[in-house]
């Protein structure tokens, strides 16, 4: 015969493993840094012990869910040093950081849910310039700029596309002629690249200047005909013939490389409402309840996540008493049919919301988008 307290823990453990498809971490020694309970505390407060396990398993689940929803097999191997080197010091990135709230709780609409409740949706993509293919180079030039995009992005609707180029400072007012050439493989018959954009810019500042160029039409053509995307060459000549465009991908130009900013549209939603209890860590509530939990990505060692470094995830824990069976007729019928083989209703999330995230993917591209189902908004018995 299993003691009453142990039976309760086994029942709740089964609920947690089965709820929302979350997989429990492997059995064994407790996680490093996890709060430990003494034998007396475990015997005197089985709910406290269960709450501790619920929190640990929620953290493990969040790590695996983020990688899965971003379609990453493992966390990108990007250190803080690499982040500092690749992160562009440019207006679009700062606007994202300033204007967007990355906390999932900022979604105040109780009926808001993504239709695809699992995979992340992308809103903004920042693609960094890369070296061009040798077949388009003439005597080793140009080294810049090639932009690669995933098939997923190429099949979305492009709302806006901007090419950003950093221009070196001028000592006195000058007119700069910026041109963009479409690259193509060099052959004996074709040795010139094709000019696709030309822009006259008046500069009067002794500090550098980020210039944006509308690139939506060119990008749409690239997406329709990917084989035509061999990259571009960027020049910005002042009256003395000096090229002010920073296109070097070598040392000394960190954060000033050209990049492409895309805004794409994915807008599928459906509605759902639910209610539940909210508790804090000092609560004596034994019923199913939502508890606060802050996830710290820096503690995970995930430097590839740019913002936010932390977010409020929350978790569910507590008992689902049999006295509430009338609320769950389907579960009650199952319980009546097989009273020994059913664990009864489980305390699980009944409403979840997304988080906004700015991060590097495994191709060292900066992505801004939503990851659905990462914040527990409501808990209930189901």
UniProtKB/TrEMBL annotation:
<dbReference type="GO" id="GO:0008083">
    <property type="term" value="F:growth factor activity"/>
</dbReference>
<keyword id="KW-1015">Disulfide bond</keyword>
<dbReference type="InterPro" id="IPR001839">
    <property type="entry name" value="TGF-b_C"/>
</dbReference>
<dbReference type="InterPro" id="IPR029034">
    <property type="entry name" value="Cystine-knot_cytokine"/>
</dbReference>
<dbReference type="GO" id="GO:0032991">
    <property type="term" value="C:protein-containing complex"/>
</dbReference>
<dbReference type="GO" id="GO:0005615">
    <property type="term" value="C:extracellular space"/>
</dbReference>
<feature type="domain" description="TGF-beta family profile">
    <location>
        <begin position="270"/>
        <end position="382"/>
    </location>
</feature>
<dbReference type="InterPro" id="IPR015615">
    <property type="entry name" value="TGF-beta-rel"/>
</dbReference>
<feature type="signal peptide">
    <location>
        <begin position="1"/>
        <end position="21"/>
    </location>
</feature>
<dbReference type="Pfam" id="PF00688">
    <property type="entry name" value="TGFb_propeptide"/>
</dbReference>
<protein>
    <submittedName>
        <fullName>Growth differentiation factor 11</fullName>
    </submittedName>
</protein>
<keyword id="KW-0165">Cleavage on pair of basic residues</keyword>
<dbReference type="Pfam" id="PF00019">
    <property type="entry name" value="TGF_beta"/>
</dbReference>
<keyword id="KW-0339">Growth factor</keyword>
<keyword id="KW-0732">Signal</keyword>
<dbReference type="GO" id="GO:0060391">
    <property type="term" value="P:positive regulation of SMAD protein signal transduction"/>
</dbReference>
<dbReference type="InterPro" id="IPR001111">
    <property type="entry name" value="TGF-b_propeptide"/>
</dbReference>
<dbReference type="GO" id="GO:0032924">
    <property type="term" value="P:activin receptor signaling pathway"/>
</dbReference>
<keyword id="KW-0202">Cytokine</keyword>
<comment type="similarity">
    <text>Belongs to the TGF-beta family.</text>
</comment>
<dbReference type="GO" id="GO:0005125">
    <property type="term" value="F:cytokine activity"/>
</dbReference>
<keyword id="KW-0964">Secreted</keyword>
């Amino acid at each position: 015969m299993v003691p009453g307290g142990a039976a309760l823990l086994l029942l709740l453990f089964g609920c947690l493993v089965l709820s929302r498809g979350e997989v429990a971490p492997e059995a064994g020694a407790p996680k490093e840094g996890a709060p430990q309970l003494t034998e007396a505390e475990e015997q005197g407060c089985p709910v406290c012990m269960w709450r501790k396990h619920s929190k640990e398993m929620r953290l493990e689940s969040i790590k695996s869910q983020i990688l899965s929803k971003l379609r990453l097999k493992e966390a990108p191997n990007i250190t803080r040093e690499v982040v500092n080197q690749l992160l562009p010091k440019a207006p679009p990135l700062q606007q994202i950081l300033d204007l967007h709230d990355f906390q999932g709780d900022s979604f105040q609409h109780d009926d808001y849910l993504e239709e695809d409740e699992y995979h992340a949706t992308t809103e903004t993509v920042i693609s960094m310039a890369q070296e061009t293919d040798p077949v388009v180079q003439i005597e080793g030039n140009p080294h810049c700029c090639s932009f690669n995009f995933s098939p997923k992005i190429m099949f979305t609707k492009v709302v806006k596309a901007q090419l950003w180029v950093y221009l070196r400072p001028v000592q006195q007012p000058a007119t700069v002629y910026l041109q963009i050439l479409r690259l193509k493989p060099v052959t004996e018959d074709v040795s010139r690249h094709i000019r696709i954009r030309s822009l006259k810019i008046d500069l009067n500042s002794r500090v550098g200047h980020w210039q944006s160029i509308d690139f939506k039409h060119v990008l749409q053509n690239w997406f329709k005909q990917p084989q035509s995307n061999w990259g571009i060459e960027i020049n910005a000549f002042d009256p003395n013939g000096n090229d002010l465009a920073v296109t070097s991908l070598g040392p000394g130009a960190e954060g000033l490389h050209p990049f492409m900013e895309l805004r794409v549209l994915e807008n599928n939603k459906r509605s759902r409402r639910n209610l539940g209890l909210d508790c804090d860590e000092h609560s004596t509530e034994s019923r199913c309840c939502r508890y606060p939990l802050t996830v710290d990505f820096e503690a995970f060692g995930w430097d590839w996540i740019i913002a936010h470094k932390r977010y409020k995830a929350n978790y569910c824990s507590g008992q689902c008493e049999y006295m509430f069976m009338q609320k769950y007729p389907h579960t009650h019928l199952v319980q009546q049919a097989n009273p020994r083989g059913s664990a009864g209703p489980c305390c699980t999330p009944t409403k979840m919301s997304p988080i906004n995230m700015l991060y590097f993917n495994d191709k060292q591209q900066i992505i801004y988008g939503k990851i659905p189902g990462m914040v527990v908004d409501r808990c209930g018995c189901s």
